[in-house]
Amino acid sequence: MRYVVVSGGVLSGLGKGVTASSIGVLLKAAGLRVTAVKIDPYLNTDAGTMSPFEHGEVFVLDDGGEVDLDLGNYERFLDINLGKDNNITTGKIYSKVLEAERRGDYLGKTVQVIPHITDAVQEWIEDVAKQPADGSLEEPDVCVIELGGTVGDIESAPFVEALRQFQFRVGIENCCFVHVSLVPVIGVVGEQKTKPTQHTVQVLRGLGISPDMLVCRSETPLADEVREKLALFCHVKPEAVLSASDVSNIYHVPLVLEEQGVSQMLSERLKFDLPDSRPLLDDWRAMAARVDGLEGEVHIAMVGKYTGLSDSYLSVIKSLQHASFAVGRKLVIDWIEASHLEDLNGDISEDVVKQNAEAWELLKKADGILVPGGFGDRGIEGKIIAAGYARENNVPYLGICLGLQVAVIEFCRNVLGWTGANSTEFDEQTPHPVVVFMPEISKTHLGGTMRLGSRATLFQVDSCKTKSLYGSEEHVDERHRHRYEVNPDCVDAIESNGLTFVGKDRSGQRCEIFELKSHPYFVGTQYHPEFKTRPNRPSPPFLGLLKAATQQ
Ligand code: GLN
């Protein structure tokens, strides 16, 4: 097993995840089986209890793991499926060590960060790196490890120390280090400044890790003299100082690295042969060019709650993008804060009136409307209004999880005439609980207790839009993350009015997909199809939305 460790310095949000995934693409293109591990140095056991406001979207895996969104980058770039153990957190490592301590496994010893925590980290990495990830039963050849956070943080110190030791454990020839840093451009002449990178590499080297490669994020390509200077001060070969300047689309990143000889350097450093032809790279070239060449726009209104922070809906955005490539249009997402669509209730303050007018203008010009998943009652009425607008005006609509639930609430209120219909998540006293708490879910523990991960949805009809989008499969496996569901007692009344639950779980009780008859595309999924999209295989419900939105 070979390992490529990707760390980051200066500041977060530099694109370490995309860099690490791109290196994975180059390794995969060279014919290696690639897997990935993300280390998150926080005490939460997993990302499941963390706010998307603070931490971006919670990504869900087949096995129900609620993990960092970078695992989504790995799955999409490398076309692999990871498990919850591929996301290591401080919380998980400490729980494991403390459990062992209580069992008496360390009897007589003082349990310490070094060696007990650092050993646990290394064992975990070695174990999970062996897990097949590409759908075959084969062990991977190489594992890309992304160390979250910024080197030098107190939080990540035990992991940096573990990785320092790790290079000796697995053999220096099997482990290489890539450090991602920032080269800011300042002043009128646009000077590229090297000092932040010098400092972060000093910190890393002070902790015992010397990077084999530096990936320098910058607005502009690195000047030769800047590269030379960084090589000199950072103890890296000049050719291993890589320029990662801003690109027109993300699919260029592996290609930009490749142009600078990264595959060749990795093959020399980790001792594997580079094949003569690498068709995967040709695919990436074609994809990068196709994305650059998209013409004509398609406007999708995203009606949500975290609209200021696109990371909160990263996989939904990716799914829309992938579907837009398939229909050959440039995607424009119009973000609408759901609460801005709500009735003003007599409020005539200027800001509120303006926000409301702007939100409605965006909604009305949309080619398609999407209401993504969510929790909590803020903006719920606005989402219900958006679903109703789409239903009544024949605007293509996709509702995901909460987006399905609000559309059902809207339908019950306005088509069935059930005044006050609601989800018990938002109104426990509602006279018409059309969305209810699932019986098996814990009311006391929030972490890891939802209906999570991959579950089967069986189509209930011979033909319908979603079934044909899924290639007429009899069943599909998609990922879930919810506590509430459509009340099975209301299904007959809803269906007899035209909203049909065309997909249900194996029990036939749980509603998974709805479609509205006599509407171009009005679809809701209780599951989250966004977690399985791929650049060249867009998620079917999203493809349906984009096809309908572009009259295809
Ligand atoms: N809050 C809703 C539920 O728990 C929807 C969840 C979601 O959209 N992921 O069922």
Would you write up a description of this structure?
With 552 residues, this protein is α/β, with parallel strands linked by helices. 37% of the residues lie in helices and 21% in strands. The chain has 18 helices and 23 strands. The strands form 5 sheets. Strands 13-12-14-15-23-22-21-18-19 form a 9-stranded mixed β-sheet, sandwiched between helices. Strands 5-2-6-1-7-10-11 form a 7-stranded parallel β-sheet, with helices on both faces. Helix 14 (380-392) links the parallel strand 14 and strand 15 (397-400). Helix 4 (90-103) crosses helix 5. It is globular, with a radius of gyration of 25 Å. The two termini are 47 Å apart. The relative contact order is 0.11. Residues 373-375, 401-402, 425, 481-484 line the site of glutamine.
In round numbers, the mean pLDDT is 94
- What's the number of extended β-strand segments? 23
Shape: globular
Question: Percent helix among the residues?
Answer: 25-40%
Number of DSSP helical runs: 18
Strand order of the main beta sheet, please? 13-12-14-15-23-22-21-18-19
Secondary structure blueprint with pairings:
Elements lengths: L1 E7 L7 H14 L4 E7 L11 H4 L3 E2 L5 E2 L2 H9 L8 E3 H14 L9 H17 L12 E6 L9 H14 L4 E8 L2 E2 L4 E2 L2 H12 L6 E6 L5 H11 L6 E5 L6 H8 L2 H9 L8 H14 L4 E8 L9 H14 L2 E8 L12 H16 L2 E4 L8 H13 L4 E4 L1 H13 L7 E2 L9 E5 L13 E9 L5 H5 L5 E8 L1 E3 L4 H5 L3 E6 L6 E6 L5 E4 L14 H10 L3
Parallel strand pairs: 1-6, 1-7, 2-5, 2-6, 7-10, 10-11, 12-13, 12-14, 14-15, 15-23, 16-17
Antiparallel strand pairs: 3-4, 8-9, 17-20, 18-19, 18-21, 21-22, 22-23
